[in-house]
Write a structure and sequence with these properties.
Elements lengths: L1 E6 L5 H15 L6 E5 L4 H7 L5 H8 L3 E4 L16 H11 L4 E7 L12 H4 L4 E7 L15
Parallel strand pairs: 1-2, 1-3
Antiparallel strand pairs: 4-5
């Protein structure tokens, strides 16, 4: 049994997540089905609990084998104070799950090469690489300070 946490996200994300869940339902082993747990984070959690990722929701995420995350945030929550912004939930999730990086694949599909800002002689050769982005320091978790000059 594999436990999968579902963070449905905000805006149009729940619609996208519903389709992602349909895919998971199709690929799972019927003899060993996935068990899903809904986890409130982002704007949904702010609306429910006044907090973008309450500890009890983080605890649910930590109890899973995997977490599928929809995009969070949106105009509805833009005026909130910093600690209540949906994006803070994402930072807490990363920190709580001890995630240190994310992988961002980059590939040029021939059908979309003309839409690329890169020169044609570059896109004609093809691009297929992965950017590994560090997530634990600097602007995310570094010391916050202001210096006057």
């Amino acid at each position: 049994m594999k436990k999968i946490g579902l963070i449905w996200g905000d805006g149009s994300s729940p619609e996208i997540m519903a389709q992602a869940k349909r895919v998971l339902d199709k690929v799972q082993d019927p003899a060993d089905p996935f068990v899903y747990t809904d986890i409130a984070m982002g704007g949904e959690a702010v609306d429910k609990y006044g907090d973008p990722l309450p500890q009890h929701e983080l605890d649910k995420a930590l109890a899973q084998d995997s977490v599928l995350l929809g995009a969070i945030g949106g105009p509805k929550w833009e005026g909130l104070p910093g600690p209540q912004r949906p994006e803070k939930g994402l930072l807490r999730l990363r920190e709580g799950m001890e995630l240190f990086a994310n992988d961002r694949p980059a590939k040029i599909w021939p059908q979309l090469a003309d839409a690329s800002p890169l020169k044609k002689e570059i896109t004609d050769k093809g691009i297929d690489f992965v950017i590994v982005r560090e997530l634990i320091g600097g602007a995310y978790f570094g010391k916050k300070e202001t210096k006057e000059v």
